[in-house]
Amino acid sequence: MHEICLSFMMTSINHPLVLVILVLADVLENCYCLYSLRRMVSSIKSNKVVPEDSESTVRDNSEITTNRKSLTKRTSSVYNLVQDIDNKSADERRGTALFIAATLLQRELIETIVPIQSSGMISMLYWLNIKSNSLVYGWSNKEYHQALMYTGIDLGVELLVFGCTISALRYIFPKLNPWQILTGLLKMHSVSMSLLMCCMWILNLLFQCTYSGVDPLFRFEWLTCEDNANSTWIGGYEWDC
Length: 241
What we know:
Strand content: under 5%
Number of strands: 2
Low-confidence stretches: 48-58, 60-72
Helix content: 55-70%
Order of helices and strands: HHHHHHHEE
Largest sheet: 2 strands, antiparallel
Distance between the termini: 36 Å
Radius of gyration: 24 Å
Mean pLDDT: 78
């Protein structure tokens, strides 16, 4: 949902600096997650093992057993997972590392797919000249090509970040194969992912439809035409009173 909204925001950018800020914020977020993950893994490897007595060992083993029962309830925040990874056992750390890698890979996959879908959707709406769509109605050829250019720049950056994320995960966790993780996730959840993505697109398109009564500019021009018998709907959110 976030990526779809972001892709539509990029179509209405009036200054290239706004595009740079939006793209840079996404890149820095991903870099910070990878940096924090790498730093935490390095600190774990450098920690020394301190001998424990049998009583504390039994207590710790019981705590580990209790914690393992709740492994299926993980937060979706990569930052929180990274901060908590040093408090886990070796097996739990591997499971958490796998979950972190899967979360990062899924996010980068979505951030790569959505710009492609957005370009196709914008092109279809523009060439069909759908009057009820408030986003593309009234666009000139220059505005249309500018929207495609910004979306293409975003796609190029996301592809670069995707490749860097895969390389970084290979370096941080040599025993984990990012491609196998990603293909496994797609095989198991491709249907649910597709259905959820379709629902998000339909919801966004409904917000852009004139008949939904949502005007993001807060002009609501049809309210001024209430008492005018000759009011004419031009298209999008434009009315001739």
